Amino acid sequence: MMTPKQDAKRPILCNSWITGGGDPIVFVHGIGSSHNGWDGVVAGLGDTFRCITYDLRGHGVSPLPDGEFGLDELVEDLEALRADLGIERWHVAGHSLGGMIGPAYARRYPERTLSVALISTAAGRTEEDAAKVQGVVAAMEEKGIGEVLGTLANRWYTDAFIAANPEVVEARMRQVTGMSAEVFLNVFHIYAETEMAPWLQQVPVPCLVLTGELDGGCNPRLNRFIDAQLPDSRLVILDGLKHAILAEAPDQVARELRGFFLDVAQPAAAG
Description:
Blueprint: E1 6-7, E2 16-19, E3 23-28, H1 39-43, E4 49-54, E5 65-66, H2 71-85, E6 90-95, H3 98-108, E7 113-119, H4 127-143, H5 145-156, H6 159-164, H7 166-177, H8 181-193, E8 207-212, H9 220-229, E9 233-238, H10 245-248, H11 250-270
Parallel strand pairs: 1-5, 3-4, 3-6, 6-7, 7-8, 8-9
Antiparallel strand pairs: 2-4
Helix pairs in contact: 2-3, 4-5, 4-8, 5-7
């Protein structure tokens, strides 16, 4: 029996998983992914932190939305999850689209947010940048998602990783083609059309900005802009990596997150 879709304009309680103990971190995945995308990172943090992963609405095993939705609804889903878990305040780490959900959440719910890690995301896009990412969405709508995925794989993964781990890349492609095309295109539109520049200065918590040196769509130029706009942030660029840094370099990402979250906790403990 199919689970009925839920009203897209109301908060949807998403499925979640918890590992470890300590200060809570919620991990927000990107377009067409799932909570499992954080496994390698969580493995390096569960000894110190309470790690909460979840599937965005319409992804993995979380309920499907009925109708279109935007960034605001994804923020409200995250707050509904926090309330359901009974967590007072948490760190938020988001990758790609999740890197937009995280700061938007902190802006709306600063009293619930300890800090935010913006990983492989984008802001301050030029007209050319915006046209490129919106062109990808348009191509998928015209030709079909499967016809465009191959070009995305080359943007997400380095050549060396594709050659050494073809099964990982193929599984990622199947993950996308196996989900609701309507939801995938909806979240891709959110990612392509969200511009955080007007409100990044209103994010009132410490932030880590992290991306790969060779990430085309979320490149160092855009992340330097994000770092410059945020009131309290640090910038880290990982050498030789593209967009899929959670898959290619989970240990490096976990190390940067650990140092950042522990640094945030120290002033709080002192106060």
